[in-house]
Design goal:
Layout lengths: L1 H13 L2 E5 L6 H7 L2 H9 L5 E5 L17 E4 L11 H16 L2 E5 L1 H9 L3 E4 L5 E9 L4 H7 L6 E8 L1 E5 L4 E6 L7 E4 L3 E4 L7 H13 L5 H9 L8 H13 L3
Parallel strand pairs: 1-2, 1-3, 3-4, 4-11
Antiparallel strand pairs: 5-8, 6-7, 6-9, 9-10, 10-11
Helix pairs in contact: 4-5, 6-9, 7-8
Amino acid sequence: MVVEQEQQEQHEKTKKRFALFLATCDSEFVKKAYGGYFNVFVSTLGDEGEQWDLFRVVDGDFPDDDDLDSYDGFIISGSPHDAFADADWIVKLCSLCRKLDEMKKKVLGICFGHQIITRVKGGKIGRARQGPDMGLRTIHIAKDNEKLDLYFGDEVPASLAIVKCHQDEVLELPDSATVLASSEVCQVEMFSIGDHFLCIQGHPEYNKEILFEIVDRVLNMKLVEQEFADKAKSTMETAEPDKDLWQTLCKNFLKGQI
């Protein structure tokens, strides 16, 4: 029994550990269909034998500083809130990201998270120059980039389809950032800083059902017009995101699975 207990303790120590900083509330649809956004992220990025922890930063739930080093990587989710706002939890999240930057911890920033890291590193964020964007979009991947060669493992695709859902964007990159992807409507679709920050404006974790529910919700709230909503949905009538390639990219970044 003692040997088994020691083996179990050793397994717990070597188990990879990741944390999701959830910057949005779970919609009723996501709760019912997936049990919450946490499960959406874990099903997309998680692997068997890992430990994944949830911190609802939007509600003020943060990890203790002393516990940060025990994690192998972190994900900052999307959010309906502005990354340039000064709500207490957003300011605290920025402070936490500065600590993770100093520690060179792996952080994957998604949409709002992408913009938060821009803010923390001295870039500029604001309302998207061409207005809000929702739907399936094709983004163009940078050529001859060594990081992308490592993250994709095989051949780097020239473009990728991803679900977009945002009204803000990166207006000016931090000096230390490298653009990894762009599009006709957004100059900074993906960037990296060093080997520890990877930021994506789109949502690798989203699917058609999640997008459609968000579109319907913002339409009912009269935040968008019917024509805008119809166009957003039409982008996924005959196409879908390159989810497998996004999984490969994000997992290889977070876990070094090259």
